[in-house]
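Customer escalation, tier 2.

The customer says the design service returned an amino acid string that "doesn't look like it belongs to this structure." They asked us to rerun it and document both sides in this ticket. The original structure tokens are below, unchanged.
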């Protein structure tokens, strides 16, 4: 939203957009609980106590709840923000539920690569909320999250590989092993960091962002290299937790760059 507005957007617009996105994400999560009820019971403590899997909430009620949140998200965004942002949030919701959860997650080790598009849509929603449109800058934001998702999620998948294996979910560490997973983590990390520096090529960001992207990216690559060299739970956890901080700080740098630029 800051990038789209070229500065600080109004607080009312921020609140409405965040509320609409929260509803969309909550709706998608509830629908995920319904569709993944069977495998949630098999994936250990992390998922077996979820409301639907544990039987505390009937699946039809969870379905109604998820659909209601998703519908309310669209109505709120369309009414208080704009139709473009509402349509994008709904598209992300449907892609996550129907394409990733229902199909890709259970059918291919590339599930998180393709399915990562769902998680990359919120920046588009924010940009569209501020502008009513999408431009090359919005697609850059989408690309950052899209390329960040595989190394981030595969680091987690290394930590809970046995859970996915027990449920028969073909995550990359289960299907291709740890060595291939760490190789792809390094490859995607290199592409991610290079992509994050693209604004340097066309002068679309100031020095503050570029310095932040370079420093944050250098440590991301170092953690990926260490994981590749020594594939242990400690190394995987270090990369996973840092990846969360990396993305947050990268977007903070973009927002600050828009304000001071």
């Amino acid at each position: 939203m800051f990038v789209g507005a070229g500065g600080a957007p109004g607080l009312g617009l921020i609140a409405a957009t965040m509320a609409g996105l929260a509803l969309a994400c909550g709706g998608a999560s509830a629908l995920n609980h319904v569709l993944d009820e069977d495998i949630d019971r098999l994936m250990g403590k992390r998922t077996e106590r979820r409301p639907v899997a544990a039987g505390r909430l009937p699946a039809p009620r969870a379905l109604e709840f998820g659909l209601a949140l998703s519908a309310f998200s669209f109505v709120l965004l369309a009414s208080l923000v704009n139709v473009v942002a509402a349509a994008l949030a709904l598209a992300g919701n449907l892609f996550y539920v129907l394409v990733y959860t229902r199909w890709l997650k259970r059918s291919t080790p590339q599930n998180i690569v393709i399915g990562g598009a769902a998680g990359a849509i919120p920046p588009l929603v924010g940009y569209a909320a501020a502008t009513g449109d999408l431009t090359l800058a919005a697609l850059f934001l989408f690309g950052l999250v899209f390329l960040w998702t595989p190394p981030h999620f595969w680091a987690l998948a290394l930590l809970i590989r046995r859970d996915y294996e027990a449920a028969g979910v073909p995550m990359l560490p289960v299907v291709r092993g740890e060595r291939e997973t760490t190789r792809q983590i390094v490859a995607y990390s290199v592409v991610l960091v290079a992509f994050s520096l693209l604004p340097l090529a066309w002068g679309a960001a100031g020095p503050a962002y570029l310095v932040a992207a370079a420093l944050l990216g250098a440590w991301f690559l170092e953690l990926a290299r260490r994981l590749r060299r020594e594939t242990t739970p400690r190394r995987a956890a270090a990369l996973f937790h840092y990846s969360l901080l990396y993305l947050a700080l990268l977007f903070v740098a973009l927002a600050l760059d828009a304000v001071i630029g």
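Tier 2 assessment: The sequence is consistent with the input. The chain is about 80% helix and 0% strand. The mean pLDDT is 95. Sent an explanation to the customer and offered a walkthrough call.
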